[in-house]
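Recall the central idea of this unit: under ordinary conditions, the amino acid sequence of a chain determines the structure it adopts. In this exercise we apply that idea directly, starting from the sequence alone.
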Amino acid sequence: MRGNLMAALKSGKNLFPGIVGYDKTVVPQLENAILSKHHFILLGLRGQAKSRIIRQLFNLLDEYTPVIAGTALNEDPLNPITPAARKLAEEMGDALPITWLHRTERFHEKLATPDVSIADLIGDIDPIKAARDRLDISNEEVINWGIIPRTNRGIFAINELPDLQPRIQVGLLNILEESEIQVRGFPVRVPLDMVLVFTANPEDYTNRGNIITPLKDRIDSQIKTHYPRSIEEAKKITAQEIDKSNAKIEVPEFVRDIIEEVSFQARESEYVDQTSGVSARVSISACEILLSNIQRRALRNKDKDRFPRMTDFYLIVPAITGKIELVYEGEQEGSILVARRLIGQAVTQVFTRHFPKPSKDAKSPDGRPADNSYEAVVDFFSTGRKLVIADDMPFDEYKKALESVIGLKEIVKRYFGCDSEREMLLRMELVLDALHHYNMIDREDIDSMVHYGDIFSSMFRGTDDVR
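Accordingly, the structure predicted from this sequence is:
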């Protein structure tokens, strides 16, 4: 691994394709650990590509390696490690049967669960084999080797290490320290040539288990992963991970920004348990649902209008509620309300990157008159007029409804030059949604229909603001 890594670094080869945002943080630490011949652990919250990273490590192994045919421990023909293999090598000499093992067969992975035993990982005596072959119980040939020794001369990974019972973790100490194993206390010491890699979630240290101190001490490097640090990185991850069934649907960049912003807002929300994290799968699932809803609307309306609308965003709630853990205050609010609040925060965050922030004040903080760009739209609703937009509304009705709002198209034209009629309408809908979140106009959601109206009329009616 070390030699192949050095060659890859010299050639400038991308060692971890598909891993985004780790070039300056996680990847250098991984490279240093491998160059140092370390066993290491990837420590991070859910959805931080830990499993994807370890599943690419086998690419650093030689493509094929020779092993003594028929040996369970992938033994080197020039350096057999078990008495049986050494005896066979002495007897056969140059006629020793050899087979070539591909690097994909030299990587094994195990999910740590409370029911994993020492026999599963290391091995145990097989009394049936001993009786059948009439072997002494102390003969190493009666040992049924576990998955770790069977990965000799390769890479073995344990996912979610804290879930492994402490007494089982103890069985890994010799492998990490002396690179050898013992089975049932027999004087059979088998030196192993392998790399052990682990993953863990910090939350698991207290909720489900912990890593025993001697084991932590023997894991040479601890590498911490993290979530994407920018919207652009997050969009790259989502684009490469989403199901490609609806890939041909045109989606403006600011729509993708809103989808990613939902996760960023959740990672800062007081209602979300930050120790559990907010997986990148939130954005991936949300994007897939949004695209599917666009497709569903086009099929139902029997038209070719495959373009997003703001109403689509509030149908991604199922992608959020199942993937975030709420604190007590969030549970009191309810997962659906929290999800809709996060969507609203994402909308306003992206909105202010393209349009001026709405203000109710007559003057701005520096004493100058405030920007009254949205006055015509607010006045439109203050006269008692309403606007209804349904999720399944045909395009012509959707267009007519939005264009009926006086001053709305002019706002979009002023701040956003757009040749696409559909994107113009989408931006118009974005302005309405943002004005609602800034408490300038009212919005009521009834099933799949959105009702926009005057905020003061809503207050006087005593209706609840459904968000």
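Residues 281-301 form the longest helix (21 residues).
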